Amino acid sequence: MKADYIRQYLSSAQIELITAQKARIGKWWRADAIVEDVNRFYYIIEGKARLRIGDYEYIAEPGQLFLLQAGLPISFSLYEGKEFSKYWCHFTAKAGEMHLFDMLRVPHKVEMRKGTRTAKRFEALIHYYHSSRLDAPFRIKALLYELLSEFAAHAAATEISSVPGTHKLDAVLAYIDRHLAEPIRVEMLAKLVHLHPNYFMIVFKATLGFTPIGYINNRRMERVQHELLRTDKGVSEIAAQVGMECSYLSRQFKKHTGLSPREYRRQRKLK
Predict the structure, then answer these.
(1) What's the confidence (pLDDT) of residue 96?
(2) Which residues on neighbouring strands pair with residue 34, listed in sequence order?
(3) Beta bridge partners of 109
(4) 209 with 138, same domain?
(5) Torsions phi, psi of 96, nearest 5?
(6) Which residues pair with 50 in a beta bridge?
């Protein structure tokens, strides 16, 4: 995924705070492989803790900000049985109908440099979470965006990237090849990989370099080229195989190759 796509994808984020607290954590704090539909931020203040996020294990220490993503199994417990302190919050983050981090690889933790305002942002977040002021919801969203921005800023550029998407599109590409003779709707393709159509189009182009419609048109022209060279079928029969009227196919084919179908067949067979 290119940097401009990541920026576009992140800019579509919609976030909502569930809860925010500052706590001294005791012996009761333990969980094994729980999976929840919310994201968590843990900012360690004092002491240490054990965390497992997906397949990765960490000893959480002061100054580290952890992002525990929705949908990943997480486990946690005290380190050597000793208490520790942390700021924490639960929040949802979505881009369309997807969890924001479903299509991104992000680090689970960042080391916050001295002098950052992370603790002050958490204090303000907790304050407005408990506030009845009319501006509190706006303040909460702004502070959550600041925490996410701070997390992204401290992550190395190579640590934020797309989840490889080509394998997720295999079913889409196979469907397209099987249905070139029929109308192909973007909504149907998006449904195959359980994505909102708007975000499917972004992911498709970022992965393959074409819009879905552009890719479909290219595959149709490639099929026409193959049929012209490998068979003796007439242009009208080939047009039916790719779901086009004969005259429309001829125009599109000339745009694609610079030649009419008949000229293409004649020239290639002479070589």
Answers:
(1) 61
(2) 74
(3) 66
(4) no
(5) 70, -125
(6) 59, 77
Confidence of residue 199 (pLDDT cuts 50, 70, 90): confident
Q: Which amino acid is at 16?
A: E
Q: In the structure, what pLDDT confidence band is assigned to residue 158 with cuts at 50, 70 and 90?
A: very low
Q: What pLDDT shows up at residue 94?
A: 82
Question: Is residue 265 located within the same domain as residue 193?
Answer: yes
CA distance 202 to 186: 12
> How high does pLDDT run on average in the chain?
87
Kindly tell me if the per-residue pLDDT of 197 is higher than 90.
no
- pLDDT tens digits for 81-132? 999 999 999 999 986 666 777 767 788 999 987 767 999 999 999 999 999 9
SS3 content of the chain, % helix, strand, coil (to 5): 45, 25, 30
Q: For 238, what's the count of Cα atoms within 13 Å in the CB-facing half-sphere?
A: 24
Q: Are residues 46 and 71 in the same domain?
A: yes
Q: Which 3 state secondary structure label does DSSP give 144?
A: helix
Looking at 162, 184, 199, the residue that finishes a domain is 162
d(CA 168, CA 160): 19
| Same domain flag for 28 and 154 | yes
Dist CA 83 CA 53 (whole Å): 20
- Report whether 39 contacts 144 (CB < 8 A): no
- Cα separations (Å) of 192 from 114, 196, 215? 47, 10, 16
Residue indicated by tokens 């969890």: 99
- Mean pLDDT calculated for residue range 23-49: 94
Domain CATH for 95: 2.60.120.280
Type of residue numbered 148:
L
AA letter at 226: H
Whether residues 150 and 176 share a domain: the answer is: no
- CA-to-CA distance for 21 and 63, rounded, in angstroms? 17
pLDDT on residue 12: 67
